[in-house]
Amino acid sequence: MFFPSKILLFGEYAIIKGGEALALPLPLFGGKWAFESDRKKQQDLSKLLAYLHQFGQSGTLLAPLDLAQFESELSEGLYFESDIPAGYGAGSSGALVAAILARFGDKNKLEKTSLEALKKMLGQIESYFHGASSGIDPLVCYLQKSLFIGEGGNLKTVNPPETGQFFLLDTGQSRQTVPLVQWFLEKCKNPDFEKMLAADLMHRNAEAIAAFLSGQRDILWQAFHEISLFQFRHFEKMILPAQRDLWLEGLQGGDFKLKLCGAGGGGFVLGIAKKSDLPVLAGQKIYPLSF
Predict the structure, then answer these.
(1) pLDDT tier at 132 (50, 70, 90 boundaries)?
(2) Is 47 exposed, middle or buried (0-12, 13-18, 19+ CB in 10 A)?
(3) Residue 291, pLDDT above cutoff 80
C-alpha cells in the first residue's frame, strides 16, 4: 500500500494561534513497506519500536498496535521505502507513522475511531521524531484525504476542487522547523504583531481556504497575494535570501505568487499561477500540483 506525502496548503503559523488550516495528501512523493537487508533503515525502525514499547509497558500507548508483529517483521527485513524529501515539510515522518498504524493497527478498532482520536494516536507515535506532534501530518497520510482544521482544532475531511493553479518550488535546502516556530512565538509576544496577525494573516488565510474549496479563483488569487505580501514583510527569517527577489517579482507581477509551504526556511515554497499554464521561472525547479 502506498502512503503519500502531504502539504499544508494554507494555515502555516496561523494554525499555531488557533486559526484555520487545510492539509492535502501529495501523491507526488510517497512510501511503502518493503523487505530487504537494509540495516540502517531497520536500525531506525528498531529505535522507534523501542520508543513505542515504553508506552506499551506503561499502559499509555494510545494506538492499538501489535508491537510483537512489528518486531517480528523487522527481524525479517521490513523497512519503509520512501522518496519523500526529509526536512521539506512534506510529511516524511507522517507517511511512515501512517504506514505503521495501517499495517500493525487493529483494523476493527480503528474503523470505529474518531478523527480526533486517530490524530492523538498518530501524534503520539510521531512524537518520536519531533518531541511533540499535532498528528495532522500522519492523519492526512493515513486517511489519504484532504483535511480541514477549523478554529479551535475541529477536524473535517473535504474534497478539494480540481485545479492546476498550484506548484511547488524546490529551494534545494532542507530546514529545521523548531527554531522557526520559536522565532514566530517570540514575535507573538509583541501585542501589536499579534493583533496584526489576527486582523491580516489569519483573516486572509481563512478567506483563501473558503475560496479554494468553493472554486472562487479571483478571490483565491487576491487572498494568496495578501498572504504572500504579509509573509514577505514580516516573516523575513522564513524566506531564504535566494528566494526574496523571486518572491518580490511575484508580488509585483500578475503571473504568479509565492508563499510559505509549512514552516518555511527551506524545503518547498508554494506557488500559485494566474492561469493554468505554470510560469517559467528561470533556474528554478518546480513541480506542478493537481488536486
Answers:
(1) confident
(2) exposed
(3) no
Map 224-278 to HEC letters. HHHHHHHHHHHCHHHCCHHHHHHHHHHHHCCCEEEEECCCCCCCEEEEEECCCCC
Q: Is 9 helix (H, G, I), strand (E, B) or coil?
A: strand
Does residue 184 contact residue 13 with C-beta atoms inside 8 Å? yes
Nearest Cα neighbor of 288 from 3, 30, 26, 85 is: 26
* Tens-digit pLDDT profile for residues 57-79: 999 999 999 999 999 999 999 99
Within 10 angstroms of residue 25's Cβ, the number of other Cβ atoms is 23
pLDDT at 122: 97
Which stretches of the chain are DSSP H helices?
39-58, 67-75, 92-104, 107-111, 115-130, 136-143, 177-187, 191-196, 203-214, 217-234, 241-252
Residue 113, number of CB atoms within 10 A of its CB: 17
**Assigned C-alpha cell, 100:** 505503521
- CA atoms of 224 and 243, how far apart (whole Å): 17
User: Mind listing the pLDDT tens digit for each residue in 178-227?
Assistant: 899 999 999 999 999 999 999 999 999 999 999 999 999 999 999 999 99
For 145, the 3-state DSSP assignment is coil
Distance CA 62, CA 71 (A): 18
The yes-or-no verdict on residue 282 having pLDDT over 80 is: no
- What pLDDT was estimated at residue 265? 94
Give the CB-side neighbour count of residue 121, counting CA atoms within 13 A: 23
Provide the phi-psi class of 153: left if phi over 0, else alpha when psi is between -120 and 50, else beta.
left
Q: What is the CA radius of gyration of the chain?
A: 19
pLDDT at 40: 66
